[in-house]
TrEMBL record:
One GO location term (cellular component): tRNA methyltransferase complex
Record protein name field: tRNA (guanine-N(7)-)-methyltransferase
Purpose: Catalyzes the formation of N(7)-methylguanine at position 46 (m7G46) in tRNA.
HAMAP family registered for this protein in UniProt: tRNA_methyltr_TrmB
Gene: trmB
Taxonomic path: Bacteria, Bacillati, Bacillota, Bacilli, Bacillales
Keyword Methyltransferase annotated: yes
Catalytic reaction(s) noted: guanosine(46) in tRNA + S-adenosyl-L-methionine = N(7)-methylguanosine(46) in tRNA + S-adenosyl-L-homocysteine
CDD domains xrefs: AdoMet_MTases
EC number: 2.1.1.33
Binding site for S-adenosyl-L-methionine: 44, 69, 96, 118
Recorded GO MF terms: tRNA (guanine(46)-N7)-methyltransferase activity
PROSITE patterns: SAM_MT_TRMB
Primary enzyme class: transferase
């Protein structure tokens, strides 16, 4: 993904510690200290500009959410949304998803969302896909028993690869849609990429998988 550099982004993130958790490792095993209510925690890895996670947090006040994004120039837009909405059940982390186990202990997280993850189409880059087996192991290490991953993409190749990866890992494939927007799935919240690609006529794929 091309990212426009915003030199002021770091300062903006640092000046809102009530929304952007700056030393997440200190909350490992104790994320309830960050939120008003002690309730299940769902995270999105690769949250981008944050529309999905913000709307989810508004719609589901009984769930705590964390949006995780690598690039500060991207997550600042999510921060803008969060400042505007001022939600007690949403926080942001500007960190690399490869380091999830530094920030979360086993059982801290009840669900992982992956939306329109970078496809990394070249086989030699497969290890970078957020559904590669090493990432599935990371998610397993922070999720509750029988925790779930909910995954959406417009990329057929990435979807096929991910279903294989989930299956080879021994996960239960609970729900699969090959055309989300023409399915009976209710309550879909669109991400920025989802809107962009579905407007161009791309089909959206979605699945829910569970560790066993
Ligand atoms: N989920 C958003 C959406 O659907 O609109 C953004 C999709 S964008 C294609 C993928 C995002 O994942 C990018 O913002 C990228 O920086 C982020 N990302 C990729 N690898 C990541 C990682 N290892 N840790 C955190 N974020 C990551």
């Amino acid at each position: 993904m091309r990212v426009r550099h915003k030199p002021w982004a770091r300062e903006m993130l640092e000046s809102h510690p009530q929304y952007v958790v700056s030393s997440p490792e200190q909350y490992k095993g104790n994320w309830k200290a960050v939120f008003e209510k002690d309730q299940p925690l769902h995270i999105e890895v690769g949250t981008g500009k944050g529309r999905f996670i913000t709307e989810m947090a508004k719609a589901n006040p009984h769930v705590n959410y964390i949006g995780i994004e690598l690039f500060e120039s991207v997550i600042v837009t999510a921060l803008d949304r969060l400042i505007e909405a001022d939600l007690p059940n949403l926080r942001l982390l500007n960190v690399n998803g490869e380091k999830l186990t530094e920030y979360f202990a086993k059982g801290d997280v009840s669900r992982v969302y992956l939306n329109f993850s970078d496809p990394w189409p070249k086989t030699r880059h497969a290890k970078r896909r957020l559904t590669y087996k090493t990432f599935l192991k990371l998610y397993e290490e922070i999720l509750i028993d029988k925790g779930e991953i909910h995954f959406k993409t417009d990329n057929q190749g990435l979807f096929e690869y991910s279903l294989m990866s989930f299956s080879e890992y021994g996960m239960l494939l609970k729900f699969i849609s090959l055309d989300l927007h023409n399915s009976d799935f209710e309550g879909n919240i669109m991400t920025e990429y989802e809107e962009k690609f579905s407007n161009k006529g791309f089909r959206i794929y979605r699945c829910e998988v569970q560790y066993q």
